[in-house]
Amino acid sequence: MKILPPSYRATECLVNRISLQGRRRLAPVRTLASQAVCVRFLSTVTPSGTRKLADDKVPPPGTTAPRKPRIDLKPGPVKPVTLGTDHSPSHPLSKPTPRSSHYHPPRHLHPPKPFRIELSAVELAKRDIAEASQQGVLEAPPADAGSFKRVFHQALQLLKFYFRGLKAINTHRKQVNAIRKRVESGGALPTRAEVRFIQTFKRDAFKLVPFMVVVLIAEELVPFVALYFPRMLPSTCVLPGQRDRIAFKARADQLGALYRNRGAYEAMYKDGECAGFIQMHGLKDPVAVCSLLGLSAWGPSLLAAWRIRRHLKIVAEDDDLLRGEGYGRDLTIRELNEVLSERGMIPTPERRSADDLRDQLRWWLDNTEVVPQGADSVSRRLLLIGLIGSQK
């Protein structure tokens, strides 16, 4: 064995120490280089020509992945499906199916509040004119107008409004004649809107002469007429505020009759419940029926019975038109309220939406569609009016 000198050993140790220090310095650089390579590998975009297999399983944006059906660990017995009023088919039918919870006439639990107007007739007239001016029905007076000029301007605008209303009645007469000529020549039958238009024109033409007398003699009496005798005003000569007040008062009167004559309606429904109809000659209290239908109740019983028969015949024709035009699906809330009011139904505050009103109308149309043996359109509807009045 060859023994190295001490100087050579010291030199070898120094070389080994230097090489170790060099390795320690290079190690961090190599680590940083490997990290840079990893970052570069992760941030590199995959070419569009190559698709990963995992991307095929990701659904496109805007779509939801189908859920697995939920498994009931404790299933109960399956109830058999029965066809009744509560059953709604999965496919829409030609005849709309009402909701079971609303398949009954409106039921009022609390008596109505009395209809009271705290303002005088002059103050009501001023408010109606102001509302009509805001809605653009009447031209507003100038901002710098004095008291006398303002009153004169409002009186002049009212005269113009009534003159335009009377002129509109003549225009409606020409339109009604055009509809009648079309039908007589073999054209299309009138729609429900045209039938209602003709009925409104007939009422306006009947009110034309007395209203012209009131306007020419004392124009300031028109607000009193609108307040106490609303049936004297033609539909074309009513301000928006007056129209709303007339409708509200009519519904209040119908609700008052509903609670005041409930005993008569219960007896009326009890008499015809077994047969499914009530004959007109067997009606014991025709005045109470007139009040519920919103008809004039003055005069003897024979006159009241004549009004009921005429009104229900018009309602029967309107029912046929409503069934043919989608059961009132295109009617507005105002029109639905008017239709229900003509049938003695006043919606409750909890059921005033368009769907609720249509459900109540469907109840009436479904129950009047089938007429029992020995009944007619009037007698069948009299039974439903008794049911509505009895609040059952």
Describe the structure in your own words.
The structure is a single chain. This protein is mainly α. It is built from twelve helices and no strands. Helix 9 packs across helix 12 (377-390). The longest helix is centred in the N-terminal third of the chain and has 38 residues, at 6-43. Mean pLDDT is 75; it is low at 6-11, 22-65 and 71-102.
Fold topology:
Layout lengths: L5 H38 L77 H14 L12 H38 L7 H26 L4 H7 L11 H21 L1 H11 L13 H8 L7 H24 L8 H10 L11 H16 L7 H14 L2
Low-confidence stretches: 6-11, 22-65, 71-102
Helix content: 55-70%
Structural class: mainly alpha
What's the number of structural domains? 2
How far the N terminus sits from the C terminus, by CA atoms, comes to 126 Å
If you average the pLDDT, what whole number results? Answer: 75
Give the overall silhouette: globular
Concise synopsis of the structure shown:
By secondary structure, the chain is an all-alpha fold.
Could you list some keywords that capture this structure?
392 residues; mitochondrion; globular; 12 helices; 2 domains; mainly alpha; mitochondrion inner membrane; 58% helix
